[in-house]
Design a protein that fits this description.
about 350 residues; alpha/beta; Rossmann fold; 3 domains; 3-stranded antiparallel β-sheet; 11 helices; 9 strands; disordered N terminus
């Protein structure tokens, strides 16, 4: 891929017109790190969906009653010179515990631990070679037999929606009729709003975006939550021209055949387009929103660490001033908390 060199001496030209090619070449060389977490009860086809999405061969986890266990697998996918290092984090045993709320904690801890690791690396000396293991996207699998969000779904989503980009999935959509599917989608969207649960939202379209991209974004938004069918099996289907048959991914039943890539049967294609076309935005939102929330909270409670994180390149005097400012800010917050506590105590006495 050759960079187009522009003569900066040409009238009206600065000379940075070749930057897009340079940036693209750098990204090609470095590749992308993307971490996808899949959460859902056993038997909902999590591994099958990932394999269908990325054409990988991740083994399915054995079903059984067990404590929740976090397992991570990494595969490297290369396509037209672009490398994608995909890490899939599976949550084996989710929903199998007697006390499911306690069972959420390993997932919360894992997400926070990746933020903490990135924060430590970012504050260290070798910041150029940070490995980004933060969770960029969480696919949450909703049991289609329930026809709505169950209490376990709502509890869990409330815990994670401010930590990670959540994309809700209705797997095994071939268990539902078209009317049942639409009713379930409407119910889930209503439950998300009622419980103030945020999910990943597409960035707004720009005025100069082409019409096809705007239409795609509308299709994606209308499809949430995504009712998908996943399968690596090939089934025969008559060609559109009526000449012979071809093999496509799908499932065959006594009553007929469902096709993975047919939008009349499944939202699989729309889900895939969402993830592939918004890989960068999912990473950006992770960094600028979720990670920054974690980072701000951590540093606000630790003035010395805040100084170490932000004082790179400052003089000793400037570092001392920054530390004093952080300590004063912390004292101010503690004073406000104590005042609020006294106010509540006074209100309690008045009520008596």
């Amino acid at each position: 891929m050759d960079d187009k060199i522009i003569n900066s001496d040409e009238p009206g030209m600065v000379g940075f017109g070749g930057l897009p090619n340079q940036i693209q070449r750098t990204l090609y060389k470095k590749g992308f790190d993307f971490t996808l977490m899949v959460v859902g009860q056993s038997g909902l086809g999590k591994s099958t969906l990932i394999n269908t999405l990325f054409l990988t061969d991740l083994p399915a986890k054995k079903k059984g009653n067990q404590k929740l266990k976090i397992e991570s697998s990494t595969v490297e996918i290369e396509e037209r010179g672009v490398k994608l290092r995909l890490s899939v984090v599976d949550t084996v045993g989710f929903g199998d515990s007697i006390n499911n709320q306690e069972g959420f904690q390993p997932i919360i801890k894992y997400i926070d631990d990746q933020f903490e690791k990135y924060l430590r690396d970012e504050s260290g000396l070798n910041r150029r070679n940070i490995h980004d293991s933060r969770v960029h996207c969480l696919l949450y699998f909703i049991d289609p037999s329930g026809h709505c969000l169950k209490p376990i779904d709502i509890q869990f989503l409330k815990e994670v929606h401010n930590r990670v980009n959540v994309i809700p999935i209705i797997p095994k959509a071939d268990m539902l009729t078209i009317n049942e599917r639409q009713t379930m989608k409407k119910m889930i969207r209503q439950q998300l709003i009622e419980n103030k649960i945020s999910i990943y939202d597409l960035p707004p379209c720009e005025p100069d975006d082409d019409d096809s991209y705007k239409k795609l974004c509308k299709r994606i938004k209308d499809a949430v939550p995504f009712a998908v069918i996943a399968s690596m099996d090939k089934v025969p289907i008559a060609s559109a021209a009526g000449k012979g048959t071809g093999l496509v991914r799908g499932r065959t039943y006594p009553w007929g055949t469902v096709l993975v890539d047919d939008e009349k049967h499944s939202d699989f294609v729309i889900l895939k387009k969402l993830i592939i076309t918004h890989l960068q935005d999912l990473q950006d939102v992770t960094h600028t929103v979720h990670y920054e929330n974690y980072r701000s909270k951590k540093l606000s409670n630790d003035p010395k660490r805040a100084m170490a994180s932000s004082a790179s390149g400052l003089s000793q005097k400037e570092r001392d001033l920054l530390l004093k400012e952080q300590e004063l800010e912390q004292m101010k917050r503690k004073l406000q908390e104590e005042q609020e506590m006294l106010r509540k105590q006074r209100e309690g006495f008045r009520a008596k």
